[in-house]
Specification:
Blueprint (H helix, E strand, L loop, with lengths): L5 E6 L5 H8 L3 E7 L3 H10 L4 E3 L18 E4 L23 H11 L3 E7 L9 H12 L2 E9 L10 E9 L21 E4 L10 E4 L16 E3 L3
Parallel strand pairs: 1-2, 1-4, 2-3, 4-5, 9-10
Antiparallel strand pairs: 5-7, 6-7, 8-9
Length: about 230
């Protein structure tokens, strides 16, 4: 007998990476997603041809338009630029930072069993922790017990050094079964470090890696990006 899949709604869906990861477990079905960027929309639809993609501004969407009685899980990586160490870190003073409250509004209206949210590590320290406290307080007032952990992709067989905070909200209407702390699979990343070109021999911007096993994350704006050595 086939186990019934939990219904999932994604906000700030981007190209659908979080939704794809959930679906690949075999226990979830993404039935709704919202993404405003027209370029990300095209890739999302390639990754999720059977998911309804709502292309409107999230601030204009009402819960009754999302079949709220069917949604078990809300997932979302709400915009991180307002909290990132690479940005100006304006937080809720930045309009992108206030978009977290759109996920909170959706959670209040839809009342899913779980929330799964992702953001940059800098969210923890922004405004001396006040921003993160506001997020936890908001979710608590909506009836969710929240657990969180900072995870690095390099510890899970991904050749990137990429730290992110993950939050899971458990509705108090159901019995909670907490997940964190999550065990690391491996600290091996497949990256081979060649050296550092900074005068001090230290610093992330000066690190040079060999191309074998590398899947670089490109940076824009602040920082110089990943440096690789190509054999000649």
């Amino acid at each position: 007998m086939n186990k019934q899949k939990m219904k999932l709604a994604g906000f700030f869906a981007g190209v659908g990476g979080i939704e794809l990861a959930f679906e690949q477990t075999g226990s979830f079905q993404a039935i709704y997603a919202n993404e405003f960027d027209k370029y990300a929309q095209k890739t999302f639809q390639l990754n999720h041809p059977d998911t309804f993609l709502d292309k409107r501004d999230i601030r204009t969407i009402q819960a009754e338009e999302i079949s709220s009685n069917e949604i078990d899980v809300i997932v979302g990586g709400f915009p991180c630029q307002a909290f990132s160490l690479a940005g100006r870190r304006l937080g809720f003073e930045d309009t992108r930072g206030t978009l977290f409250f759109e996920i909170a509004r959706a959670a209040k209206q839809i009342q899913p069993r779980f929330l799964f949210l992702e953001n940059v590590k800098g969210l923890l320290s922004h405004d001396k922790g006040e921003t993160f406290r506001t997020i936890l307080t908001t979710l608590d007032e909506l009836g969710y017990d929240v657990e969180w952990q900072v995870l690095n992709s390099k510890d899970f067989q991904v050749p990137q050094n990429r730290e992110r905070i993950f939050l899971i909200g458990h509705s108090r209407r159901f019995r909670s079964r907490f997940l964190f702390p999550l065990r690391r699979e491996s600290s091996s990343t497949g990256l081979e470090r060649l050296g550092n070109i900074n005068p001090s021999g230290k610093g992330m911007n000066g690190e040079i890696y060999l191309t074998s096993g590398l899947a670089p994350t490109l940076t824009r704006g602040k920082g110089e990006g990943t440096k690789i050595a190509i054999p000649v």
